[in-house]
Write a structure and sequence with these properties.
heterodimer; A: about 110 residues; mainly beta; seven-stranded mixed β-sheet; four-stranded antiparallel β-sheet; B: mainly beta; globular
Chain lengths: ~110, ~110
């Protein structure tokens, strides 16, 4: 069973640029969530994708967008990067059920915006 | 508005002793709680969870206690080992809708001294 993988591991961008982060979910998982973890903080929910559709969103502006593909992998896109977007971006996958499901996290992509 | 709070940024214990990590929450509608452990340069790793209908869940050295009246949960690690040294995050699931959104605390850095 393969775990959640993310790419790239590190990324440096400048203000105003656009970035795409990628995530492959754990085998058998159909739901992907994205989180932003700023330094010294806990992860904050950005949005979730289920069956290729956005399934809920946190308090993030529309310049944060995503995609989920038929193989359940996912992308997070951030447009018009700002300095405050510098953070660790975490992807988590789960198998959606009616009862509680546990989310399993990837190692994250560390984004630095200069 | 911090709905999940971990008021102790750090904790130091001796190897073999008990580690107790605390977490408070404000939303009585949370229905599921989880603890994650995070090493530097890795994503959070799921440790243990508890449903809001239970007051205790045990898995090996790890036990989570839930006190709903006090809106408080704790993670007990017995006996503590140096490999347990990491940041521990408490998370709560926000119910309602289709989204399995987790709300995280800010984390507690546990240092287990040999």
């Amino acid at each position: 069973e393969t775990g959640v993988t993310q790419s790239p591991t590190h990324l440096i961008k400048t203000r105003g640029q656009q970035v795409t982060l990628r995530c492959s979910s754990q085998s058998g998982h159909n739901t992907v969530s994205w989180y932003q973890q700023a330094l010294g903080q806990g992860p904050q929910f950005i949005f979730q994708y289920y069956r290729e559709e956005e399934n809920g969103r946190g308090n993030f502006p529309p310049r944060f967008s995503g995609l989920q593909f038929p193989n359940y992998s996912s992308e997070l896109n951030v447009n018009a990067l700002e300095l405050d977007d510098s953070a660790l971006y975490l992807c988590a996958s789960s198998q959606k059920r009616t009862s509680q499901e546990t989310q399993y996290f990837g190692p994250g992509t560390r984004l630095l915006v200069l | 508005d911090q709905q999940v709070k971990q008021n102790s940024p750090s904790l130091s214990v001796q190897e073999g002793r008990i580690s107790i990590l605390n977490c408070d929450y404000t939303n009585s509608m949370f229905d599921y709680f989880l603890w994650y452990k995070k090493y530097p340069a890795e994503g959070p790793t799921f440790l243990i969870s508890i449903s809001s209908i239970k007051d205790k869940n045990e898995d090996g050295r790890f036990t989570v206690f839930l006190n709903k009246s006090a809106k408080h949960l704790s993670l007990h690690i017995v006996p503590s080992q140096p490999g347990d040294s990491a940041v521990y995050f408490c998370a709560a699931r926000a119910p309602g809708g289709a989204t399995n959104k987790l709300i995280f605390g800010t984390g507690t850095l546990l240092a287990v001294q040999p």
